[in-house]
Amino acid sequence: MRAVSAMVLGGAVLAGAALSQGAGDPASGKVLAGQCRTCHGIDGFAKIPIAPHIGGEPASYIAAQLTAFRDGARAHEMMSVVAKSLSDEQIADLAAWYASHTVTATLSADPADAPEICVDCHGADGIGVTEDVPNLAAETNIYTDTQLKAFRSGKRVHEVMTPIAQNLTDDEIRAAADWYSSVSLSIEASQ
Ligand code: HEC
Ligand code: HEC
Question: Which of 8, 30, 54, 126 has the CB geometry, 3.0–4.6 Å to 136, for a possible disulfide?
Fold first, then answer.
């Protein structure tokens, strides 16, 4: 009997560890999101033009970006400071919280006019087509412009986006940024 209960306990401990490191706990993330709300809102709808909407983004993407800011692979005067003291568990919890919301994008323009080289991955409405692709819907043109130029200059690096951005002119960057900023976005909080 003793051996059996020890095994059950061991299993429970393992499951708990897997949850905190992998999936993250959205309820803890919501509490931690108090540190993020002045810029990203509690539900991930940004409050300042230079901050992106992060509600409803894939958890893996949010966690990867927070880790990149913490470790210096991606740098920003505000986010590098914010991410510096976050543990892996806090990152997983924050990612779980912000990812738990439902986003709806509404296009006011003809989808046929969307930037052709972006739609396969980011959609005409700026909702990422697969799990590793972030949403661009309703990001301000300042934000999208800044990120594309960061990929182009090498300040931000990604195997897919770096070569794409290196082939874009300033005008093409501005056109894509304007397109996605014209989409309207609503974020429905999960709790
Ligand atoms: C003082 C304002 C501010 C605070 C507070 C803040 N952020 Fe940010 N965040 C920004 C800005 C500005 C950017 C854009 C950085 C850039 O241009 O690369 C950003 C970018 C991000 C990104 C990258 C999103 C993407 O689409 O690539 C994530 C994820 C993020 N923040 C999460 C958080 C979380 C979680 C917190 C709270 C723990 C937080 N931020 C607190 C301003 C803030
Ligand atoms: C083959 C797929 C693919 C194509 C095509 C593509 N992207 Fe991306 N894009 C990605 C992925 C994957 C990321 C996430 C990069 C990361 O993890 O840092 C990304 C990230 C971005 C970001 C950063 C978003 C954020 O929240 O910080 C912007 C801006 C962006 N893409 C704009 C564009 C534009 C504009 C085009 C068309 C000119 C385009 N992308 C074409 C896959 C793609």
Answer: 126
- 42 within ligand 1 shell (Cβ under 6 A): no
* Structural domain includes residue 135: yes
Domain containing residue 117: CATH number: 1.10.760.10
CB contact set of 131 (below 8 Å; sequence gap of 6+): 58, 60, 61
Residue-wise pLDDT for 80-124, tens only, equals 999 999 999 999 999 999 999 999 999 999 999 999 999 999 999
**Most ligand 2 atoms within 8 A of CB, residue of 66, 122, 141 to mutate:** 122
12's CB contacts (< 8 A; 6+ apart) are none
Q: For 126-168, write each residue's pLDDT tens digit.
A: 999 999 999 999 999 999 999 999 999 999 999 999 999 999 9
Residue nearest ligand 2's atom 40 by CA: 118
Number of domains present in the structure of the chain: 1
Q: In degrees, to the nearest 5, what angle opens at C-alpha 127 toward C-alphas 121 and 128?
A: 35
Domain range holding 130? 25-188
Mean of all residue pLDDT scores within the chain: 90
Ligand 2 pocket, residues with Cβ under 6 angstroms: 52, 64, 115, 117-118, 120-122, 132-134, 136, 144, 147-148, 158, 160-161, 164, 168, 176
